[in-house]
From TrEMBL:
This is DNA-binding protein. It comes from Tianweitania populi. Belongs to the bacterial histone-like protein family. SUPFAM superfamilies: IHF-like DNA-binding proteins (SSF47729). Keywords: DNA condensation, DNA-binding. It comes from the Bacteria. Pfam families: Bac_DNA_binding (PF00216). GO terms for molecular function: DNA binding; structural constituent of chromatin. InterPro entries: Hist_DNA-bd, IHF-like_DNA-bd_dom_sf.
Length: 92
């Protein structure tokens, strides 16, 4: 697993930044993606992919412990669609 700190450390080393500067940049990027998603706006990063918000309708589910029917509320979820470059890199 790669963490935010590990990503920031790699960026700091490659771009001659301090680890604190790189971590601030990484966190700012994630914050902007979160802000866009909260507003329902798609975020597209060319060569990487797209983050989109999708509505999940209300549905009926089952409690696995009791088998009783329960109503699951409608919600929003964040989806990621990788760019062709990423798909190709994964399937080499």
């Amino acid at each position: 697993m790669t963490t935010t700190t590990e990503i920031a450390d790699k960026i700091a080393a490659e771009q001659n930044l301090t680890e604190a500067q790189a971590k601030t940049i990484v966190e700012a990027v994630f914050k902007e993606i979160t802000n866009a998603a909260s507003s329902g706006v798609e975020t597209s990063i060319p060569g990487f992919g797209k983050f989109k918000v999708k509505d999940t309708p209300a549905r009926e589910g089952r409690n696995p412990a009791t088998g009783a029917s329960i109503q699951i509320a409608a919600s929003k979820k964040l989806t990621f669609t990788p760019a062709k470059t990423i798909k190709d890199a994964l399937n080499v």
